[in-house]
Design goal:
The two termini are 22 Å apart. It is built from ten helices and ten strands. It folds into two domains: 155 residues, Rossmann fold (3-Layer(aba) Sandwich), CATH 3.40.50; 130 residues. It has a five-stranded parallel sheet, sandwiched between helices. Strand 2, helix 2 and strand 3 form a beta-alpha-beta unit. With 303 residues, it is of the alpha/beta class.
Length: 303
């Protein structure tokens, strides 16, 4: 997630939803509509200033914008986003949906749809061109969600975490486990390395299990560095989370990585999710590598 100018601690009155085609924009728009937002999809960019003129809307607005919008232009959209960020009387946020190139290709192959930027060619050409075109928008996002491996149901849960807060006062937190071999997950606010901890992979009895297993957790906890590490990270979050909430953030993403993304990072993610939930935070968790292997569906844990 890329933080932009922080606004007062309320639900945003305007959400601009964008990102590459196939990354989940329609699902996000529908989820926002279910949360009470008035949704307008594919609004011509030139009409946005007129839409925002006059009295404030009775309900918050969610606007879907992508390359298929009439008169869409990256420079114009950047100008609009920067102008909205500078309006103190308007709480606007940019929600950017992204996915890996491989994931987007897979989705287009499964649906047999043509990519809007390569209607007569392979989807990969259009995907690469669109991602390059949208590059200036991503750094301006207030909330970035990587939908790689996410089902529509799981993406809806992410949207509810980010925007479905009670009276705008709840901070949604997503904890991720991942493997450094497969690269850092996108859109993280914090990334913490667990590779220094005792590795259950080297115990033949534990190798095929994962970090949710009690024996695996006990094995890692035997490392004398585990308890101070966990306590220090929890202490840091005890400072950061309330401060982020006060600054108006609606969502925070925290990742724990290890070599294979199966044992130590999963175990720490599970333990931290439980600890934060016990403190009353709204927490969801994702185990990226386990999801890739089909061993787990995205899990949620709430206060």
């Amino acid at each position: 997630m890329t933080a932009a100018t922080q606004k007062p601690q309320t639900n945003p009155s305007l959400v601009l939803v964008t990102g590459p085609s196939g990354a989940g924009r329609s699902t996000a728009i529908n989820a926002l509509e279910d949360l009470g937002y008035e949704v307008i999809d594919n609004l011509p960019l030139s009409l946005l200033p007129r839409l925002l003129d006059g009295l404030p809307p009775p309900r918050p607005l969610a606007l879907g914008l992508d390359i298929r919008n009439r008169d869409f232009g990256i420079e114009a959209l950047c100008v609009v986003i920067d102008q909205l960020a500078g309006q103190p009387d308007l709480d606007a946020q940019v929600l950017y949906l992204d996915a890996s190139e491989e994931e987007l290709v897979r989705r287009y192959s499964e649906t047999r749809r043509r990519h809007p930027m390569a209607p007569d060619g392979p989807p990969l050409l259009g995907i690469a061109e669109e991602r390059a075109l949208l590059a200036p928008i991503q750094p301006r996002a207030d909330i970035l969600i990587d939908t790689t491996g996410l089902s529509p149901h799981a993406l809806k849960a992410e949207i509810e975490n980010a925007f479905g807060t009670e009276n705008g006062q709840m901070l949604g937190i997503t904890l991720h486990s991942f493997s450094y071999k497969r690269g850092l997950p996108r859109g993280m606010d914090f990334v913490l390395d667990c590779r220094f901890l005792r590795n259950p992979h080297w115990d033949a009895a534990l190798r095929q299990r994962d970090g949710r297993d009690a024996d695996v957790a006990d094995y890692v906890k035997q490392d004398l560095r585990y308890e101070p590490f966990f306590a220090q990270v929890k202490g840091l979050l005890d400072i950061v989370l309330p401060a982020s909430k006060e600054e108006g953030k609606t969502h925070l993403s925290i990742a724990f990585g290890c070599t294979g993304g199966k044992h130590r990072s999963v175990m720490v993610t599970e333990g931290m999710a439980s600890a934060l939930a016990q403190d009353g935070w709204h927490v969801s968790k994702r185990h990226r590598e386990l999801e890739r292997q089909g061993e787990v569906v995205k899990e949620g844990q709430t206060d």
